[in-house]
Write a structure and sequence with these properties.
Largest interface: A-B, 47 and 47 residues
Structural class of chain B: alpha/beta
Shape of chain B: globular
Distance between the termini of chain A: 45 Å
Distance between the termini of chain B: 39 Å
Order of helices and strands of chain A: EHEHEHEHHEHEHEEEEHEEHEHEHH
CATH class of the largest domain in chain B: Alpha Beta
Structural class of chain A: alpha/beta
Number of domains of chain B: 2
Oligomer: heterodimer
CATH architecture of the largest domain in chain A: 3-Layer(aba) Sandwich
Helix content of chain A: 25-40%
Number of strands of chain A: 14
Radius of gyration of chain B: 21 Å
Strand content of chain A: 15-25%
CATH superfamily of the largest domain in chain B: Thiamin diphosphate (ThDP)-binding fold, Pyr/PP domains
Helix content of chain B: 40-55%
Number of strands of chain B: 8
Number of domains of chain A: 2
Largest sheet of chain A: 7 strands, mixed
Order of helices and strands of chain B: HEHHEHHHEHEEEEHEHHHH
Strand content of chain B: 5-15%
Shape of chain A: globular
Chain lengths: ~325, ~375
């Protein structure tokens, strides 16, 4: 057990996955020799060689398309897309090929790959190093969408994702890559997919968050407590398929809901979360649910801290939903 | 060859067109693949079967009994010759015009017909249009309609085989239109960089639906695009099954020696529409079609066999009758087979049905049925 950051935890998970399963390969831009632009794959090529830790040409659709072919053949590719902002050239492969392969082949084939990609803002990255596009993947039947918020979950969820039979989009909140530290066991373990975590139990309002914004939600909850409001904060961890029971049980207890995400508001995941809660727990709600999100603009550079749904915006939402 | 495609030759890159079967019925020893008469007869039977089934499927579509067909009229030699050259352990990544090659590899005719009707026995469970079958048992990948996406899959499969030290190559089919796709570029580039055993089989059939080859590229040939990826490009008479077998075998041998991929441009002609949904008379003159008819890939093989005393009109008659009998039987069974169960719509999205799909399945089953089946 050691206190490590999320980059180290993910690196550890990849190393364990590659040691325990010869079929696992890692491929992407700059993942080999330099160990990734965020150093997540550092040292892997030294241990596993150039054939299993592959520096590819600069082509996201080539990387994902090749990985689909590898998976059909029977190896397990773990792809790194350098930033989620760069994933779109591969979107056709992800939506039309990867996500549908099992279904459209009647189960004869499956295209089991994991796509790891850093997401989110607050790192002075501008439009193209800051976006948080989970909604565009949650809405694709056949994909699982996972996002850890801390090193323990990152390691356990990535190992679970690699060993899960379905394709997984694994978002890594890069703003807390190094800031989030915690105790992580040295050995092999998994955190089950499709399970949310009640990070802070509370009685008055349910706050749903994930990735880097979890910390903002927790900060807001701490400040709300100073004002006598007891917020329950849930880290969704797997965005889809959602751990619906944990969410609904919480809302039924608290009667109030705040949803936090970095992505733009309109047709964002928050819309789905609020709808699910309304469909299942409307008569338990004592106030209209509130979304605290990024705005419906492209991600701005200079004003990024105003764009992000940080604690200073979550706190008033928590207070207003409880007092309304 | 009298069409626009052959006029396009003349660049400094690979402009020579490999051909084997001469007009006088003899084979050019320079590229003769050395097939026995039995092998040629095997290929011929499958060529005839492909042509005949194409006609039958179009008729079924016109009668409203199946929803769609996308055929290979005129392109049979390019498709079957290349598949014939592939070994049992190799993988084939189809475009969507290659059912004849799948049957030759071992796809059961009944399975194909079940797919054409999208019935309960369809291996893809009625989830895709006709001609979008799958057959893993014969190394046949799943078919998708988007153009070019299978190219990178073939690269990945060959890559995995190489990583595992397996003696296996992949062949990927695509048309001239797909050479404009980003997957063509990525696929050839990746395969070139990593020296992967991939055969890129471009059927230059002159048309991408209504768009002629001049609108796909400014290069003189498609084969010369290989130069940009550091790999060989070969032009072959796609209506000469001997030549197609020969160049494909060389490409596999090269791949298995670790020398990397090959781009083959098989020059042929799409004698029919793009699919049953297309009327080519709206955008092309019949002269070109007539000129290509004189180069019919199946008739050329028939002449060769007859000249060698290995085939007769009676053999043809028997072959055609046999194909029709088997086809009629398979269609009768497929047509009688009920559609897939409602519940099956929700299987195989994920390995296990998650809660939201279980809920939606229950909702569908309990809810009202759609007014009437179509198609």
């Amino acid at each position: 057990m050691a206190s490590i950051n999320m980059v180290q935890a993910i690196n550890d998970a990849l190393r364990i996955a590659m040691r325990s399963d010869q079929r696992v390969v890692v491929l992407g831009e700059d993942v080999g020799k330099v160990g990734g632009v965020f150093r997540v794959t550092a040292g892997l090529q030294d241990e596993f060689g150039e054939e299993r830790v592959i520096d590819t040409p600069l082509s996201e659709n080539g990387i994902v398309g090749s990985a689909v072919g590898m998976a059909l053949y029977g190896i397990v590719p773990v792809v790194e897309i350098q930033f989620a902002d760069f994933i779109w050239p591969a979107y056709d492969q992800i939506v039309n090929e990867l996500a549908k392969y099992r279904y459209r082949s009647g189960g004869e084939y499956s295209a089991k790959i994991v796509i790891r990609t850093p997401v989110g803002g607050g790192i002075r990255g501008g439009h193209y190093h800051s976006q948080h596009p989970e909604a565009q993947f949650i809405g694709v039947p056949g994909l699982k969408v996972v996002i850890p918020s801390n090193p323990y979950d990152a390691k356990g969820l990535l190992l679970a994702s690699i060993r899960d039979p379905d394709p997984v989009i694994f978002f890594e909140p890069k703003r807390v890559y190094r800031a989030a530290k915690g105790e992580v066991p040295d050995g092999d373990y998994t955190v089950p997919l499709e399970t949310a975590s009640v990070v802070r139990p509370g009685r008055h309002v349910t706050v749903l968050a994930y990735g880097a914004m979890l910390y903002e939600a927790l900060d807001a909850a701490t400040k709300a407590a100073e004002k006598g409001v007891d917020a329950e904060v849930i880290d969704l961890r797997t965005l889809w398929p959602l751990d619906i029971n944990t969410v609904i049980d919480s809302v039924k207890r608290t009667g109030r809901l705040v949803v936090v995400h970095e992505a733009p508001r309109t047709a964002g995941f928050g819309a789905e979360l609020v709808t699910l809660v309304c469909e299942r727990a409307l008569y338990h709600l004592e106030a209209a649910p509130v979304r605290v999100t990024g705005f419906d603009t492209p991600f701005p550079y200079t004003l990024e801290m105003e764009y992000l749904p940080l604690s200073h915006r979550i706190l008033p939402a928590i207070l207003s939903v409880v007092r309304s | 060859m009298s069409s626009e495609q052959s006029k396009r030759s003349g660049s400094s890159a690979p402009s020579a067109i490999v051909s084997v079967l001469r007009d006088d019925g003899t084979l050019d020893p320079a590229h003769d693949p050395g097939m026995s008469d039995d092998e040629v007869k095997f290929l011929y039977r499958h060529l005839v079967q492909t042509r005949q089934l194409d006609e039958r499927f179009v008729a079924l579509q016109r009668q409203g009994r199946i929803g769609f067909h996308v055929g290979s009229l005129g392109e049979e030699a390019a498709i079957l010759g290349s598949a014939f050259a592939m070994r049992k352990q190799d993988w084939l990544f189809p475009c969507y015009r290659e059912f004849g090659a799948a049957l030759m590899r071992g796809l059961p005719l009944q399975t194909l017909c079940d797919n054409m009707f999208g019935n309960a026995n369809d291996t893809v469970k009625g989830r895709q249009m006709p001609c979008h079958y799958t057959c893993k048992a014969v190394g046949w990948a799943s078919i998708s309609s988007p153009v070019g996406t299978q190219i990178t899959h073939a690269v990945g499969a060959a890559w995995a085989a190489k990583i595992r030290r397996d003696d296996a190559a992949s062949l990927v089919y695509f048309g001239d239109g797909a050479t404009s796709s980003s997957d063509f570029h990525s696929g050839l580039n990746f395969a070139g960089v990593f020296h992967l055993p991939v055969v890129f089989l471009c059927r230059n059939n002159g048309w991408a639906i209504s768009v002629p080859v001049e609108r796909q590229t400014a290069t003189h040939t498609f084969a010369e695009k290989a130069v940009a990826y550091g790999i060989p490009g070969v032009r072959v008479d796609g209506n000469d099954v001997f030549a197609v077998v020969s160049v494909t075998r060389r490409a596999i041998e090269r791949g298995m020696r670790g020398e990397g991929p090959t781009l083959i441009e098989a020059i042929t002609y799409r004698m029919g529409g793009h699919s049953t949904s297309d009327d080519p008379n709206r955008y092309r003159e019949s002269e070109a079609v007539q000129a290509w008819a004189a180069r019919d890939p199946i008739e050329r093989v028939r002449s060769y066999l007859v000249q060698r005393g290995a085939w007769s009109d009676a053999d043809d008659k028997a072959l055609r009758a046999d194909i029709d009998a088997r086809f009629r039987e398979a269609v009768a069974v497929a047509e009688k087979t009920p559609p897939p169960a409602l519940e099956s719509m929700f299987d195989d999205v994920y390995a296990k049905v998650p809660w939201h799909l279980a809920e939606q399945r229950a909702e569908l089953v309990a809810g009202p049925r759609a007014p009437s089946p179509h198609g």
